[in-house]
Amino acid sequence: MFAPAATETIELPWEVSWQASLFGLDPPSVDTTFAGLQRHALDETSWVDHLPRWLGGSDQVFAELVARTAWRHRRVPMYDRMVDEPRLTWWWTEEDGPAALPLPVLAEVAAVLVERYRRPFDSIGLNFYRDGRDSVAWHGDRVRHSQADPMVVIVSVGAPRPFLLRPRGGGSSLPFLLGQGDLLVMGGAIQHDWEHSVPKVAAAGPRISITFRHGVPTHRRARSSRSRNEVGQNRWQHVPGVRVREHPAGTEAS
Q1: Which pLDDT value is given to residue 59?
Q2: Alpha-carbon distances of 33 from 104, 111, 139, 146, 191, rounded to whole Å
Q3: Structural domain boundaries enclosing 74
């Protein structure tokens, strides 16, 4: 049995600063034409679409998300102890309604993605990598357990960070440097046959990944309802003014 989760209030002992991009402070906008999009075939059944600087005004989006989002710092079991997850997170599903989104542009992005990829993107996860020490280990998103070909879309804002892909179980990795409004779409059998990670690096500015998923199982959505937003139920530490939010699809991040 794991020890009960800590529920004490914690402070955020850092200030956010990063190198702004040339057009990052423009008003937020999305390129509905997807001009310049490149598809990379990883194998016969897995692919990624990549489009740098797809989200205009990405620095403004980054700054607003940092300020407005109800960030959570999760504590997770590791061997015989609880440790801080090396990133901050937030989660939304369509049952929460548009008013619960920290920025209206997230709904606009989701609508454009639905039109392009014909998938009902109904959940949004935010992962805040504060510096080079924050990371996520090799994994495939848990939506693969309920879907044959789940599509996962990542829009990255803030400072670029390496995002790696490799065949499941090991092998040479394919790197992407994601930030400043870059779009990355993972499709086909990639969640089944490949893994991805955001590794620790010696030095990096802050980055937020905005991840769009579809088809989260109904029972997992129910577990993330507002009725569960109480400190201590889901191994979250409390940040002042922040609601507790359980990740309905597990602990995957991008």
Answers
A1: 95
A2: 20, 13, 31, 31, 26
A3: 50-237
